[in-house]
Amino acid sequence: TQLLEQSPQFLSIQEGENLTVYCNSSSVFSSLQWYRQEPGEGPVLLVTVVTGGEVKKLKRLTFQFGDARKDSSLHITAAQPGDTGLYLCAFRSSGTYKYIFGTGTRLKVLA
Amino acid sequence: KAGVTQTPRYLIKTRGQQVTLSCSPISGHRSVSWYQQTPGQGLQFLFEYFSETQRNKGNFPGRFSGRQFSNSRSEMNVSTLELGDSALYLCASSSPGSDTQYFGPGTRLTVL
Q1: Which of A6, A13, B72, B92 has the fewest CB atoms nearer than 10 Å to its CB?
Q2: Taking CB atoms and an 8 Å cutoff, what residues of chain B touch A33?
Q3: Distance CA B56, CA B48 (A)
Q4: Smallest Cβ distance to B90: which of A33, A42, A97?
Q5: Tens place of pLDDT per residue across chain A (111 aa)
Q6: Scanning every residue of chain B, which has its alpha carbon at the shortest distance from the alpha carbon of A86?
Q7: Antiparallel, parallel or unpaired: β A10-14 and A105-110
Q8: Are A98 and B56 a contacting pair at CB < 8 A?
Q9: E strands, chain A, where?
């Protein structure tokens, strides 16, 4: 059973388009992290959301944590080829302190 | 500050062999975690070391083991390799009290 489901699994869009990817679970999280992994590299932390309903912006990326802290979304405005990569959400289990990663969304932005 | 480094970057082994992967954390980081990443299972937690002690362990067979040295460098070992062990092995380090993990570029292991 996957604790964190991400959708869509794959996304290919043209430069300049907007997109939203989702991270869903039936569990409540104290916080959620978003990472981007580029080919040949390890994941890089983009943001941590903590409060239900919280919205954080990182340039053209907007992250939202659901009110019930069970889901999160990442919206990219005017996507660029440099946004290409694997987007992962993750949380740290409060019981075991292990990091659990989502299934990932593989994004390709075409020039 | 230098980032997390992993060696080797690429490795090809045959079934039944064993392999040792190395990870050097960011200076001052005492926690090192290891992950296995495959297309089918995604990113899965292997184990975490802190101050030379295994603090956490994922659901992997005993063929997967690790250790951490006094300088916080860590190694992981996989014995009796199976085809399904082909994966990208990532390590990540973090500083005490921080939830932010910094990942290395990974070691791509191919088992033939």
Answers
A1: A13
A2: 99
A3: 5
A4: A42
A5: 557 999 999 999 999 999 999 999 988 888 899 999 998 899 999 999 999 999 999 999 999 999 999 999 999 999 999 999 999 999 988 777 788 999 999 999 999
A6: B42
A7: parallel
A8: yes
A9: 5-7, 10-14, 19-24, 32-37, 44-49, 55-58, 61-65, 71-76, 85-92, 99-101, 105-110
